[in-house]
Automatic annotation (TrEMBL):
InterPro entries: Cro/C1-type_HTH (IPR001387), Lambda_DNA-bd_dom_sf (IPR010982). GO terms for molecular function: DNA binding. PROSITE patterns: HTH_CROC1. It comes from the Bacteria. Pfam families: HTH_3 (PF01381). SUPFAM superfamilies: lambda repressor-like DNA-binding domains (SSF47413). Residues 84-139 form the HTH cro/C1-type domain. This is Helix-turn-helix transcriptional regulator.
Length: 155
């Protein structure tokens, strides 16, 4: 299997959180059935990324579940939107900083930050990392579209 190596910079707070997870998991291993095993910070990051990718790749199942929920609440569809712009401002950054950190064009950053179009996984991940990996529930939200605003299909 071909591999690609990434280098990731995180805040001290994020690094401390990762270290807490490592310490916790190693403590569990020490008293569990796998006493000789140890995990590293890299293992935690790989696992988190793997979980995110699994969630992303299973979006068809999630989308089906969401459509059931939305129909029950009187909404016929939704748009997945992001709060990258707000998070960027909260961190004291400007769009040009994100452009420089990610290599994404200023035009694309502007369109993504203004929710003109959703970014693909590659662009999403590059922006997310540039913003120090904020919790996904703070980054992504659903913009519900009421049934009355959705055109009906002819029978």
């Amino acid at each position: 299997m071909d591999k690609v190596q990434f280098t990731v910079e995180v805040t001290k707070e994020t690094a401390a959180s990762i270290q807490e997870i490592v310490n916790h998991q190693n403590m569990r291993l020490k008293f569990g059935s796998r006493k000789g095993d140890k995990i590293t910070e890299e293992d935690v990051i790989k696992a988190a990324l793997s979980d995110y990718l699994d969630l992303f790749n299973s979006s068809k199942n999630v989308k089906s579940l969401l459509s059931i929920i939305l129909e029950q609440e009187g909404f016929s569809s939704y748009h997945i939107k992001n709060r990258f712009k707000e998070i960027m401002k909260r961190k004291g950054l400007q769009q040009v900083d994100i452009v420089n950190m990610t290599g994404i064009s200023k035009t694309n950053i502007s369109q993504i930050f203004n929710n003109k179009y959703p970014p693909g996984l590659d662009l999403f991940f590059r922006i997310w990392v540039a913003l120090d990996c904020p919790p996904l529930n703070e980054v992504i939200y659903l913009d519900y579209i009421p049934e009355s605003a959705t055109p009906k299909e002819d029978d």
